[in-house]
């Protein structure tokens, strides 16, 4: 974790507990997750008990306490998506990537998460890739999506 980045996030916000969520959002954006060291530092600098920082970081889905992969695949498991086969999508992606929900592939390319409703029930089952919604998904479409993301990532690595 870069101390300089955290310092710039905290700049002008010290002793302002009401800034907690905004500060955690900036930490999440800068590091891709909220590291434990950052939570301790935020607690100390904003004057918010560490327990409260943990509670907020755990409560909101936008915050991750573990590093996420470059590609976050979110499967909606809400009722509307579930009845249209979301469990098959979850099985597909976990099998294809060899993961359990919430885990990240060893190469840091993929994290698979599940949510309860994305507010697009009529379009279900819904899968989100880094904020892009894919509706009326089927296991086959999802398999192709993962394969395409993977091959794009490989090309990027090859040309880096
Ligand atoms: S249940 Fe999946 S979007 Fe609502």
Description:
By secondary structure, the protein is of the alpha+beta class. Helix content is 49%, strand content 11%. The protein has a four-stranded mixed beta sheet with strand order 2-1-3-4, covered by helices on one side. A hairpin with a 2-residue loop joins strand 3 and strand 4. The longest helix is centred in the C-terminal third of the chain and has 21 residues, at 139-159. It is globular and about 50 Å long. The two termini are 23 Å apart. FE2/S2 (inorganic) cluster binds at residues 76, 78-81, 117-121, 124, 126.
Topology:
Elements: H1 3-10, H2 20-31, H3 36-46, H4 50-59, E1 71-76, H5 79-83, H6 86-97, E2 110-115, E3 127-129, E4 132-134, H7 139-159
The protein binds FE2/S2 (inorganic) cluster.
FE2/S2 (inorganic) cluster binds next to α5.
- Mean pLDDT across the residues is 92
Heteromolecules bound: FE2/S2 (inorganic) cluster
Structural Rg: 18 Å
Largest sheet: 4 strands, mixed
List keywords for this structure.
globular; single chain; 160 residues; 4 strands; 49% helix; binds FE2/S2 (inorganic) cluster; alpha+beta; 7 helices; four-stranded mixed sheet; 2 domains; Glutaredoxin
Summarize the structure.
The chain is 49% helix and 11% strand. It is of the alpha+beta class and 160 residues long.
